[in-house]
Amino acid sequence: MRFRHPDGTTVHLSYCTNVHPAETLDGVRAQLRDHCEPVRKRLGRDRLGIGLWLARDAARTLVNDPAELRSLHAELDRRGLEVVTLNGFPYEGFGADEVKYRVYKPDWTDPERLAHTTDLARLLAGLLPDDATEGTISTLPIAWRTPFESDPEAARTAHTALTTLGERLDALAELTGKSIRVGLEPEPGCTVETTADAIAPLTAVAHPRIGICVDTCHLATSFEEPHTALDTLGAADIPIVKSQLSAALHAEHPHLPEVRTALAAFAEPRFLHQTRTSTAAGLRGTDDLDEAVTGRALPDGAPWRAHFHVPLHAPPAPPLTSTLPVLRSTLTRLVGGARPLTRHLEVETYTWQALPAALRPRTRTQLADGIAAELTLARDLLVDLGLKELP
Fold this sequence. Notes:
Blueprint: E1 2-4, E2 10-16, H1 25-43, E3 48-52, H2 56-64, H3 66-78, E4 81-87, H4 111-127, E5 134-139, H5 145-148, H6 154-176, E6 179-184, H7 195-205, E7 210-215, H8 216-221, H9 226-235, E8 240-245, E9 247-251, H10 257-264, E10 275-279, E11 282-286, H11 289-294, E12 304-310, E13 320-322, H12 324-335, E14 344-347, H13 364-384, E15 388-389
Parallel strand pairs: 2-3, 2-14, 3-4, 4-5, 5-6, 6-7, 7-8, 8-14
Antiparallel strand pairs: 1-2, 1-15, 9-12, 9-13, 10-11, 10-12
Helix pairs in contact: 1-2, 1-13, 2-3, 2-4, 4-6
């Protein structure tokens, strides 16, 4: 979906296909047929943006066979779909029964992360719509904090890899005329947990094609105030490459037994759900939701937030809620001003099948309805901010 900002630039809205995980190119094609095109039709749109996730095997197939890449581009066109952004964070196995810490491997100390991200940049340059000259990729925020923080060479290795990536992106732009930018995506528990944590490593790299991806679920989970966070990034001249529109799980009164019970229903074995609370001494947290709910690892005198991407249009029932207000505030700052701070927005609710059983979609039809409802909410927010939806 495309929107005209009052300053005349085009803002793209898509949804991320990691909600339909596929490891192979055949699986990606099935996603387009079984999920993405039906969502487009529900929205009554001739064209729908998708934030494509390409696992390692699918990406390698496309890199090794240019004819397959051209074929995929043609299929996107035929199904009324377009790609201006990729999710380069998960490498493989995102559809596994247990993902947890595996999603952070390989990290930016491993040469394979650089190789994979380079492949994605080349592929995105070939998948962009004919009238688009810029693409974006979100990526791992360097590494999970352990063992990175105890390795004296880790930061230097990651810096070298990101510097090399910048050089490759420059070369790609010169070769293709397409500018691909990559954004580190701060996430709780990682070496870059907050937007503030991103400033030092990105300032050290100092490359205009490498910046930050602001995920509004992660921002909220870390109790960052959106306007302060984005103003600080601006003051540091850190480019906001893209933003993922998502909402975290919020518990206002975690000391109450009924709240603990409601939270426990969201603790599940597939994904990591880092949980945080803001105290006078600073941010406190656990690596997963069950650690917070069942133990005493987290103070419960102030609200908790958990890294669980809940559907934008359907917050959980009381006594829980979502951090949709944080998303609204962030979006206002991102695109509600005289010029957009980013032009690529991506709804990223990948946890539909990880919701408590009573809330999960049971059919493809129900899932498509839910994703369409999320995109409708995001569209309405953009229109309310003065953007005009384009055909």
